[in-house]
Amino acid sequence: MSLSSWCFCRVNLSTIQDLGPWLPVYLVKLGIELIASSFATFYLLVAACYRPPGNSQPPQVFKNIADRLAVAYLCCDDLDENALHSLVDFCARTGTRLVIHDDSKSEENRSFVDQVGSEINKRYPRVQILRRPDRSGGKPGAVNNLVKHLAPEIRYLLLCDSDSLLLDQDLLEHTLAMFDDPQVALVQFRNTGSRSLSDPPTYQRLTESIDFYDAFVSFIDEFGWSPFLGHNAVIRLSAFHAVGGFTPGQLADDIDFSAKLRLAGHKILYARPVRCGERHPHTHEALRRRTAKWAYGCTQVLLRWAKPIITSPILTVSEKVSFFLTVGYYHFQSLLLLYLTIFYLVLPFEHSRPIAMRSLLMSASLILLLTFFPSITYFARNGTIKDWPQTAACWGLTYGSQDFIIVKAIIRCLLRKTMPWVPTNRQDNTPSASSFAYEVCFGLLILAVALARRPVLLILPTTALFAGKFLLTPWLDKWIFKEKTPAPSPLLRR
């Protein structure tokens, strides 16, 4: 951070008296660069500390909590048979009860859930289907309703989403020893991307991002904020009740719940050896919907918990810093969009300071390099560095195209406008071309202003990435994603 800040300040502050009306623009630019330096330092530390997960033998335990554990499967017009059958296999093996909480709106999907549940009951009878007349509160409301209907002897809840796959046989063995500490309220498992033989190669590269996120989760688990990812985790129900459960209407329910637990003095642990699968959003529209929910939800979390976390005597400095770096990711993305606006659409009209443009080129390249550095380390240390260039391009184009969705969601939250909770992987209609108007217009403006005012910008790789990620947005669904939800692969059926 010191090196990048020095580079930025050396150019800008030494000439501050000559900036005139451009001073506010350069001050905004400098502020964004200093914030980017904090994230760059975070990314460097993540890259330096990352090690691939190893194989760990579960501790030897002689007790069983299966009779005190319930498995919750949440669905809302998005039941995944492969995922549900993996939960049934686990429950049948351990004697654990399974609760399917169905919030489906259509009669067709509710009938499908009943049909699947009836078939499962023939194989394993300890299965219950639960519905609620009032589907308000989104996923948090569903979880609270499910917990309310659990039998009194249930002490632990394994929370699963509609696409959760339980992959490891010794899941309980790893979990038991962690709950020996009465302060432990939640154990989070490691999420890995679930792939199908029918997935196109580009979609499989996107799925790899789920595995890659372990680099960040394992880092903050060791040095900072305890991670809860919203699913594939076991919750101690006494702690759940003590903090009032999930917050209805909260779209980042996992971070909100983890803030409640940590501020109440409870612990959250990361069981990295235990793998659970999940599916990447299967269309570009689904990804945009998830991004909007997370950006809106993280803004809700900051508005509610920023002050209590800053002033909490329980949390360490590293926990507080890593909390704001992770929760503030989407807000940082919105600042980078402002930075691109300054870089490509404003400063090209400033003629008197050619050196300022050079400093901008340096800072933009530095931000780009450090953004990708954790992924370079991830692929190198897993022995797959040859796959990095194509995967990084796929990630950059796909996730980089979410900027305007993020900004709109943040503004919506700040204006106190509600956002309805919608399942990420529900069936979609093909979005209209106007859905991507902001992205395409911004990409065209980058090229037009560069061509008219600073043609040298056109030869920069950063220009190709920044303009390209917006201009290509309307075609990402066709090139990278599935155009519709496919039937499960025959090789994955049970």
Q: What is the overall number of helices?
A: 19
Strand content: 5-15%
CA-based shape: globular
- How many structural domains? 2
Cα Rg? 24 Å
Name given to the CATH homologous superfamily of the largest domain: Spore Coat Polysaccharide Biosynthesis Protein SpsA, Chain A
Order of helices and strands: HHEHEHEHEEHEHHEHHEHHHHHHHHH
Return the average pLDDT rounded to an integer.
87
CATH topology of the largest domain: Spore Coat Polysaccharide Biosynthesis Protein SpsA, Chain A
Q: So what's the CATH class of the largest domain? A: Alpha Beta
Keywords:
19 helices, eight-stranded mixed beta sheet, Spore Coat Polysaccharide Biosynthesis Protein SpsA, Chain A, 494 residues, 2 domains, alpha/beta, single chain
Q: If you had to describe this structure to a student in words, what would you say it looks like?
A:
The chain has helices spanning 2-13, 23-49, 81-94, 107-123, 138-148, 171-178, 201-212, 214-223, 237-242, 253-263, 284-311, 317-327, 329-346, 354-381, 388-400, 403-414, 437-453, 461-471, 476-479; strands spanning 69-75, 97-102, 127-130, 156-160, 165-166, 184-193, 233-236, 267-278. It has 494 residues and is of the alpha/beta class. The chain has 19 helices and eight strands. Residues 483-494 have low confidence and may be disordered.
